[in-house]
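Retro notes, item 3 of 5
We never archived the inputs for the C2E complex last cycle. Fixing that now. Sequence and ligand:
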Amino acid sequence: MTDATGTNATLDPPAIILVCDDDPTVRLLARECLESAGLEVIEAENGQEALTLFDQHEPDLIFLDVDMPQLNGFEVCTAIRQTQRGQSLPILIATGAHDNRSIDQGFEAGATQYKTKPINWALLSRDVKYMLRAAEAFAVLKAQQVQLRTLAYYDPLTSLPNRRSFVDQLRGSLEETADHHRTLGLLMVDLDHFKRIHDPLGEALSDSLLKVVAARLEERLGMYAPRGPDPHEAIDRSKLDEMTIDLMRPGGDEFNIIVRNINNSQALTAIASLVLETLNAPLIFSDNHLVLSASVGIAMAPEHGLEPEAIIRRANIALSAAKLSGRNRYRLYDNSLADDADRKLRLEADLRDALESPDQLFMAYQPQVDTTSGKISGVEALVRWNHPELGAISPALFAPLAEGSGLISQLGDWIFKRVDSDIQALKKVFPSYLTISINLSPLQFTQANFLETLKLRLSELQSNNEIELELTEGVIMSDADDSLLKLQELRTAGFRLAIDDFGTGYSSLSYLKDFPVNTLKIDQAFVANLGNESGNSVVRAILALAEALNLDVVAEGVETQEQAQFLKRHHCNILQGFLLAKPIPLQKVIEILDVDFSHMYRVDES
Ligand code: C2E
Ligand code: MG
Ligand code: MG
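Structure as it came back at the time:
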């Protein structure tokens, strides 16, 4: 049953009203009115008693007289507002004073309502109920606000603070660092090759794995007891403050750690080692034995800046350096890393120029020799960059650079056009039996309009010669199901497909038999390892696999006659490497089409 105020008249349990007045008549009348409206009343005859009862009974509203001996109503009100529970409690102040100053004073002390005496008893219970209802609505709002804040600032998966709170906390901590001459550290942790784990596991399991990782890190970092201040150091108050560690998850497979109040970078590298050690511990997860690793970039304030952007950027630079130098390690930022980053930026700008300039970039063509005929049967197109100041720059260096800077589709497009025009220029003498291999970069492969561009640039060429596209294993395996569709599309469009650098990635053999590829290219590293039993057996295994799957095999990086002989003996049908020919201008390839290379791998009987 609800009354006119919308408040449940028979509240269960009834709301408790604390009535505090030194005048027993007021207390009696208040009790009468409120109890008859279904409310429970407790009485205090002075301010001190009111505070005690407030503690013991947790009332829902206080009716408070101002003029009392010892503690007056304003003082009681102020004291209650200072407690956690009293912050949003409705307080009704009653006094004989009518002047504005007293009223202001009442509100300043934290009163919710102000009534002047004599009290209109007929209206009291209604007013009290309105106040209770408003307080209830306020409490609901407040709870919602807390919930919203949680959603806005915490990652729902791990319950760790999210990216927004990371930036807020970093900003706040940096200000504190500056004000108190303290040192702060930021560790950016990025799980190594998480995609390789993510894709086979799927979304839901990967999420649970991230939860496990977060929990492990939280547990270990919580346990990390910082060493006390060095007793030999002069006592410095700020250094006696305890170090604090906060773990956050800005997103994906990244974790950030803010460490406050450290003495030196050693505390940070110790934490980084602990993170690596924690992640390296073997983990059994949904029946898989996993060993995770991570790369960690570290920057500190004030040494590397006092703005969040500066610290984040430098920790990121250190993180990239950790990844580049082989992952599963940490790097502390230093200026030489920034030089590297600057150099990279400059090189990016130069590459942009090179794409516009007529002759900085060009193509070289490395012959591939068919071991059955002894003749050149194809060429691999390899891009070259002759930098105006730095000289020749390897594509192994600038292809990933182009990939990282968004220049790769432009570079890729440039390569298709150039291969096409190089061949058109020699059209009259260019034989149609030569296969032309072109390397694709990982990002190109994932671009939506990629096939259209490819057809647009190469259709004429394709009508005369077979074109083989080289993809690395990593690219194909990173999203095996999606790749399968794409590869099928490329095959349908008439391209041959090769897996480049075979053996270095993580090909799952079950996929390999479904992929519509034509050729495996044995990575140079395996060819270089020929000559000892284990090296020989790896190459033999790859050749046997290729034979079983009915694939062509190209051996890359063939440099010695022994290697060539071994490969020929084990039925490797195509050889590519410096022994036979280096990458050369296309014109030069045409000039040696009649050369017989078989003496280079023939085993002399005599
Ligand atoms: P890759 O596709 O595996 O190319 C083979 C690399 O091995 C080439 O290096 C080639 O010059 C080198 N090589 C050939 N024979 C030998 C040998 O006997 N010994 C040794 N030590 N090396 C040999 P290059 O031209 O420096 O290219 C390196 C990588 O850069 C390529 O590896 C490929 O991944 C990438 N790349 C080259 N050209 C292109 C391109 O046009 N587009 C894309 N996306 N990537 C390219
Ligand atoms: Mg290649
Ligand atoms: Mg290769």
